[in-house]
Amino acid sequence: MEARINLFENAFAAKFAKRFAGMSTLLEESSLPKATQELVSLRASQINGCGFCADMHTKEAEAAGESSVRLHLVAAWREAVVFTEAERAALALVEEGTRLADAHNGVSDETWAKVREHYDDDQVAALVMLVALINAANRLNVIVRNPAGSYRAGMFAGMKG
């Protein structure tokens, strides 16, 4: 499978990607736990069918020490006992925030209350921004059909400078 257009080699897309990566860096510098960030990014990517991002976030999570058991169970997090209550709240938020078209009310009050119970204002802000950013990344990659499988952990580190 080949991408419809190589956004990594296109001059305009490269300028955009640099700014996009800058937003990602801000999220990485937030107090939202790195494990939560990767789990949330992986779950949104699974829902959106973005193989490129699922590949990236699985490998980044593994490189950061995440267990294969937890990564394999992200899609079935409700039935899994390996996630904390805080992580479960974040996973509920990313699902509801990603599936906006499926529910006219968007994120439920119940999910929002659980998120607020486990995260402070800065972490909530980072979580909301992360959901928006990963959904945008998923859409970019799905539209151009970026193939999955060749990502290496840390591959885009140089873009963030």
UniProtKB/TrEMBL annotation:
Q: Pfam families per the record?
A: CMD
- This protein's source sits in the domain of life called Bacteria
Where is the Carboxymuconolactone decarboxylase-like domain positioned along the sequence?
A: 16-96
Alphabetized UniProt keyword annotations? Oxidoreductase, Peroxidase
InterPro entries to which the protein is assigned, alphabetical: AhpD-like, AhpD_core, CMD-like
One GO MF term attached to the UniProt entry: peroxiredoxin activity
Q: What is this protein called?
A: Alkylhydroperoxidase AhpD family core domain-containing protein
Supply the source organism for this entry: Allokutzneria albata
- Record lineage: Bacteria, Bacillati, Actinomycetota, Actinomycetes, Pseudonocardiales
